[in-house]
Amino acid sequence: MTLREALELPTFRRAAPKVLAGAAGTDRAIRWVHATERPDVRQLLRAGDLLLTMGTGLPEDDDAAGLTSFVDELADVGSAGVVVELGRRWGAALPEALVDACERHGLPLVVLARETRFAALAQEIGERVVDQQLAELREAQRVHETFTELSNELASPVEVLRAVQRLADAPVVVENAQHRPLDYFAGPDEDDGFLAGWPARSRRVEVAGRTGWDAANGWLVTRLGTTDRAWGRLVIGSPQAPSQRLVAVAERAASALALHRLHDRDRGTLMRRTHLELLTGLAEDPGSDDVRRRCELAGFPVHRRSLTGVVVRGRIGTVAPVDLDEVAATVVRAAHALRVPALVCEVERDLRVLVSTTPGADADELVDRLAARVLAHHDVVVAAGRTAPDRTGVARTVAEAGQVADAAPQARREQDPDVHRLADLHLRGLLALLGEDERVRLFVERELGPLQEHDRADGSRTELLAALRALLLHPSSKTEAAASLHLSRAAFYDRLARIEAVLDADLDDPDVRVSLHVALVADELLGGQPK
Fold this sequence. Notes:
Radius of gyration: 31 Å
Strand content: 15-25%
Distance between the termini: 44 Å
Largest sheet: 5 strands, mixed
Shape: elongated
Helix content: 40-55%
Structural class: alpha+beta
């Protein structure tokens, strides 16, 4: 319990408490209560202890140095505060030196105008502290039992994250080492806005040690993996400083995810493990005869074959996140039914698929048929790279499929193809190939920085970026652009005028429009706004 809460207890209220100094510190937790008149209290107290005194043993009123030294000792040990009962030593006021020293340290100083029994105060506070400690122990036991059961049942990452969401009652995200969200479970009052601008925001968050709290974003962040071999982070929404219980939930969840990763690697089916090794071998050493022979033994021909990389990825933020094991099984069944040789493996919560076709076959058409069978059962994003004429292009086609998946819209749209390809993404495809080139980032900052600064300063009153996006999405009709924002034409035109003033640019200039459109798309791909 905090001192602020303690001041509302019946015994405290009857004593007419008044905070004279260090009011901001009344939110600190009380660990225990001590009543003493000894001035040398440092050896008696621990961090979080609240001191009750009548002041009879404290230095004289004119001994400012002595009173200041007394407060310094309380601050050094991390005391929760000091409560002084008036009447026995001091009448209506305390010495200024005592009050000033408490205010300087931010140490709460409370006076009681009415006589009270310190034993009753200590008992009432102590009972509440013990009750809270018991409640914390019960919650800690609940956390322990939950994750022990999950570990015993070899729970999947989805089951672990659902448990975290339930225990934390907050949004939960797992990201990879490149700060791309792999899984997301919304909190009770959250929407997909929690993921807005995720990669860019996440890169700015650094925590010391394994777990830390980022106050700016309201994130509790826990490293996944060791310091030298971290493979991602677990993030739990926590607008306020997290409790020890929430920290325990995060760290137990991180351990459960690491255990699953280790166990899954050890228990993985021979096929999945072999396919990952073969795909890695083809990408890193495509000319190796040993890799070729192993591929052929595994029923995956690579000699005189065309090879197409495909990435299958669960959509982030869906009501029912996909189970990649089930998706992988569906891909294998579909490939078998179509008689298409395929390597299927999981990397960073993506399914990577390499399809082998004869040179005369229509590789794109076969991939489309494969995707149609998968999409009939799972809500996933399917992206394909350009077909490589031989195995020397495996690394390129697989990497390109991943870049296309990164650029593809997360929300499914009616006009979207079953399989996203670089040619379908047009400008997005080009920017996806450029990846996170620092020159693209600088271009976005140069083009959109003034509007972003304006919107941050102005809040939600104008949202000039939204107005610019609406204008560029409806190039032939400003009326439709205004309607998309539920604005009148006059209000929309006013925002366009403000955009031109902020950017010092003419929005009717085709070059300006193209430049701003490119910057907006690049900003989305870099994580600036949800797609």
